[in-house]
């Protein structure tokens, strides 16, 4: 148990709970329930005010800023009494309205209390600074504690998931969602670290050829720096944005100890490898490799300590404020070591990564009056060839005159300058994507220990909803994913709840929360939806981005409520169509969508890579040789109809993810971005309100308060809580439902706190916690009685031993006294002298 007076705990509590003095001060403020209210405000969304007068439908108020305003009666929202200010769980608010929820979050964030409960899930606002609330002492503070016993924290949600898994023998999932820049990745790391600490198996793994022994928990935590280096980048909204989605499953054995892990990744943003917006960066690894951390890698990879010299990584920013790329590179390299990567694997990996930088610098020119390009200097191509373990001449030839199939014959087709540059871009993206996929597979091999697995907790961290000035194919895929996840949340929280009530026959008025996202999802994924039309255009000869947009207009414009035509804005990027998502309307630009979705690469160069001397590269492109072999064997070119597009692959992966999630008990963490300027302590009320509405936070609180979120089947309830009313259940057979009703009546619970269904008993939020406290008290009483009886039995045994000792002592004393009186008796003295002579006479 952690000492609450420990300096580290005391320091952490400043950022987790209000000090009792401040609570008293806050709650003793003057308050007039009849006058205090919230009124709309153009800057703050809502502002505190006092009602001065009311006339018909208009109310005159005086705001906290001293202004007098007249507002409509319907626009006024009730204010909660001071005892509810800065409350831990917004579901406990007396008046549950938009203004009160916003005020609670705003007041807590102003005091750096970033975690707030919201019914059954947790809201976290990005602090944009490091807080001392994640150390080992804080982990121990939350381990095995009920949510109501400790201040709001991600650790409390994590521990609930862990306890549920062990108690209910059911897989769990934690969905950490929110917009880009809201802090999902950081919170995901904290969750994984928590499980690694509380469920550590404790056994060391001996890596072959390694001096250190590493635990599985170390390796699970070390997967993060590796994936971040290769999968995260600086964007306009987030300095460490995950440009891919990941679902990390941590497996546990029968006793709850960690027994392995695996990672599934979704939708790496490949276009970033060769192009970045002005305020953004390429993936972190490129800048880490160019840093001063490991000069020996510069020599091996033929690179310099200056990323600005490499076109593919220098189109946007080169540095991030407050981030030292050299230090990050050291952490990445250390993580590779912990994960058991050999030095050869690391060198080959960095060679393949660096080759992309050189590829981007290669120069080409157009031959006059010919549809044929040629090299404008071969130095960069030679560097690429050296790093990738292929012949430079073969690489250049493969780029300038790739071998393509025409009919049943192969011919070498000349390429113009633009085609060569596009081919290099596609190859660079392919190398990087395959590196990333291999990295994940390689990490999974390390984390796949031979231990018995029984349950898992899945942690989902996926790119948040994105609305940029320029929204392309990647944004559609990300936003489509978020639509599906939001629907899963709505379905779990609202629809399933109400269906369950109906099925169980409990009294309940159906509530329509108006959050059905199916229309938007259908627009994207159904037959003749956006993705279907895109996939169809990818196999239609001579189809272009223009014909794709025309087909969208023909099928959806004016026919589908979620589809629209954007209004041209001055100085804004050209957009081709609008989709009305749950988080707002997004204008998409369809430029290069067909090319991005087909994602073709130069097969001649791919086959060259497959035969490379670089051991890693030959593995990455092994499928190119297999495809060529299959093509030769069949005598046919791989047909367009069998081509697996990016959108089709993503849909498959997403369906698999949703099926995985449906088999778990989900826990939702809602991450909120407080402002657009990446500054801690500043809260943009309108931005936060938009996210609260889109994330379903407000609706979640409402259903949690009106509904019955906790439930148990009767037999389980009887078994667990019969201890509360042993006399309420008569001897002999009594069915579980009747027993449950008797127990609840005996406990004198208010009837509104529970409902008895046909197979289960349902409770309002917090009621089960009360029953658990009552059960703990009853158990404490029984255990105290049992302890008393055991102690009594032990003392009786001790007393019996003491009596026996006393009796033995009395016998000894009596014998000693008799001997003392005997030794002075004359006849005894004579006997002792004569006895030796008698012995001699006998001999």
Weakly predicted, low-confidence segments: 207-211, 636-642
Proportion of residues in extended strands: 5-15%
How many β strands by DSSP? 26
Provide the helix percentage: 40-55%
CATH-derived topology of the domain at 340-455 and 599-658:
Four Helix Bundle (Hemerythrin (Met), subunit A)
CATH architecture of the domain at 340-455 and 599-658: Up-down Bundle
Q: Tell me the name of the CATH class of the domain at 340-455 and 599-658.
A: Mainly Alpha
Q: How do the strands line up in the largest sheet?
A: 6-7-23-8-19-13-14
Q: Based on Cα principal axes, name the global outline.
A: globular
Structural class: alpha+beta
What is the CA–CA distance across the termini? 79 Å
- Biggest sheet record: 7 strands, mixed
Mean pLDDT: 90
Query: What oligomerization state is this entry in?
Result: single chain
CATH H level of the domain at 340-455 and 599-658: which superfamily?
A: Myosin VI head, motor domain, U50 subdomain
**Number of separate helices:** 29
């Amino acid at each position: 148990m952690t000492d609450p007076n420990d300096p580290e705990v005391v320091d952490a509590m400043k950022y987790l709970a209000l000090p009792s003095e401040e609570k008293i001060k806050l709650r003793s403020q003057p308050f007039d329930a009849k006058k205090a209210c919230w009124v709309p405000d153009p800057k703050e969304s809502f502002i505190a005010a006092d009602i001065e007068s009311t006339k018909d439908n208009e109310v005159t108020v005086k705001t906290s800023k001293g202004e007098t305003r007249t507002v409509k009666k319907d626009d006024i929202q009730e204010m909660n009494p001071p005892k509810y200010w800065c409350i831990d769980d917004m579901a406990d608010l007396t008046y549950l309205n938009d203004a009160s929820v916003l005020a609670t979050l705003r007041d807590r964030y102003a005091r750096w209390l970033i975690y707030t409960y919201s019914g059954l899930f947790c809201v976290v606002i990005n602090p944009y600074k490091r807080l001392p609330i994640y150390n080992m002492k804080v982990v121990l503070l939350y381990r095995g504690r009920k949510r109501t016993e400790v201040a709001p924290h991600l650790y409390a949600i994590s521990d609930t998931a862990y306890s549920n898994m062990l108690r209910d023998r059911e897989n769990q999932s934690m969905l950490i969602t929110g917009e880009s820049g809201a802090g999902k990745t950081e919170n995901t790391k904290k969750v994984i670290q928590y499980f690694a600490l509380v469920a550590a198996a404790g056994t060391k793994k001996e890596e072959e050829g390694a001096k250190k022994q590493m635990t599985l928990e170390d390796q699970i935590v070390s997967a993060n720096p590796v994936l971040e280096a290769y999968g995260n980048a600086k964007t306009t909204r987030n300095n460490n944005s995950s440009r891919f989605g990941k679902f990390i499953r941590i497996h546990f054995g029968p006793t709850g100890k960690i027994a392995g892990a695996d990672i599934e990744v979704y939708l790496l943003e490949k276009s970033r490898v060769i192009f970045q917006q002005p305020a953004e960066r390429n993936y972190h690894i490129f800048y880490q490799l160019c840093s001063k951390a490991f000069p020996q890698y510069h020599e091996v990879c033929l690179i310099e300590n200056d990323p600005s010299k490499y076109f593919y990584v220098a189109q946007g920013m080169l540095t991030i404020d407050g981030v030292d790329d050299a230090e990050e590179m050291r952490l990445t390299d250390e993580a590779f070591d912990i994960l058991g990567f050999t030095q050869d694997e690391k060198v080959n990996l960095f060679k393949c990564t660096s080759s992309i930088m050189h590829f981007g610098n290669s120069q080409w020119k157009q031959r006059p009056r010919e549809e044929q390009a040629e090299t404008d200097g071969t130095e960069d191509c030679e560097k690429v060839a050296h790093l990738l373990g292929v012949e430079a001449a073969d690489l250049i030839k493969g780029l300038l005159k790739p071998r393509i199939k025409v009919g049943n014959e192969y011919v070498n087709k000349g390429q113009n300058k633009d085609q060569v540059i596009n081919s290099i871009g596609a190859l660079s993206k392919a190398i990087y994507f395959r590196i990333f996929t291999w990295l994940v597979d390689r990490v999974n091999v390390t984390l796949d220990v031979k231990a018995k697995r029984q349950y898992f907790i899945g942690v989902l961290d996926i790119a948040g909803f994105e609305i940029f000035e320029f929204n392309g194919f990647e944004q559609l895929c990300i936003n489509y994913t978020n639509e599906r996840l939001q629907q899963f949340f709505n379905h779990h929280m609202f629809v399933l709840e109400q269906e369950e009530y109906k099925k169980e026959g409990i009294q309940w008025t159906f509530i329509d929360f108006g959050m059905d996202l199916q229309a938007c999802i259908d627009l994207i994924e159904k037959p003749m939806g956006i993705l279907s039309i895109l996939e169809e255009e990818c196999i239609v000869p001579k189809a272009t981005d223009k014909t794709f947009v025309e087909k969208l207009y023909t099928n959806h414009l004016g026919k589908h409520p979620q589809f629209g035509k954007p209004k041209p804005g001055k100085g804004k990027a050209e957009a081709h169509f609008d989709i009305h998502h749950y988080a707002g309307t997004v204008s998409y630009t369809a430029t290069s969508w067909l090319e991005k979705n087909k994602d073709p690469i130069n097969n001649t160069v791919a086959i060259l890579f497959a035969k490379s001397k670089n051991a890693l590269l030959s593995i990455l492109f092994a499928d190119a040789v297999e495809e060529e072999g299959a093509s030769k064997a069949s005598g046919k070119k791989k047909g367009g109809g069998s081509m697996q597009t990016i959108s089709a692959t993503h849909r498959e992966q997403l369906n698999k993810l949703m099926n995985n999630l449906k088999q778990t008990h989900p826990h939702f963490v809602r991450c909120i971005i407080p402002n657009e300027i990446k500054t801690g302590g500043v809260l943009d009320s309108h931005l936060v309100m938009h996210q609260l509405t889109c994330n379903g936070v407000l609706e979640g609180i409402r259903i949690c308060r009106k509904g019955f979120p906790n439930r148990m089947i009767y037999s389980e309830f009887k078994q667990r809580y019969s201890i509360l009313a042993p006399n309420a259940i008569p001897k002999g057979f009594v069915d579980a439902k009747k027993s449950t009703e008797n127990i609840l009546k005996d406990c004198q619970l208010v009837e509104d706190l529970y409902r008895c269904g046909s197979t289960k008993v349902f409770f309002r939020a917090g009621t089960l916690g009360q029953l658990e406290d009552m059960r703990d008290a009853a158990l404490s009483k029984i255990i105290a009685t049992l302890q008393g009886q055991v102690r009594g039995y032990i003392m009786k045994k001790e007393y019996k031993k003491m009596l026996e000792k006393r009796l033995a002592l009395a016998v000894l004393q009596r014998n000693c006294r008799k001997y003392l009186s005997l030794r002075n008796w004359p006849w005894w003295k004579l006997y002792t002298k004569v006895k030796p002579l008698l012995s001699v006479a006998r001999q």
